[in-house]
Amino acid sequence: MTSVGIDAIEVRTGKLRLDLAETFAPAQGEKPEKYTKGLGLYASSFPDVYEDIVTMGANAAHRLMDRKGLEPDDIGRIDVATESAFDNSKPVSTYIAGCLEQVYEDDFHHANKGERKFACISGTQSLDDAFNWIRAGRHRGRSAIVVATDTALYARDDPGEATQGAGAVAMLISEDPDLVELSTEQGYGSADETDFLKPQQQFPSVDGKRSVQVYLARMREAIEDYESVVGPIHPEDYALGPFHTPFPGMVRKAAALAFRHFTRDTEIEEQLAADIGRQPRREAFDSDDAFREAAGEYTDELTDTDRYREWYARCVDPTLELSREVGNWYTGSVHVARVSGLKAALENGENLTGGRMLVGSYGSGAQAEVHAETIQAGWAEEISALDLDEQLDARYDLSFAEYEDVHDVHNHDEDAGVTDVEGFTQPDAEFVFDGWGRMGERKYTYVE
Ligand code: CAA
Question: Which residues are catalytic?
Answer without folding.
Answer: 83, 120, 244
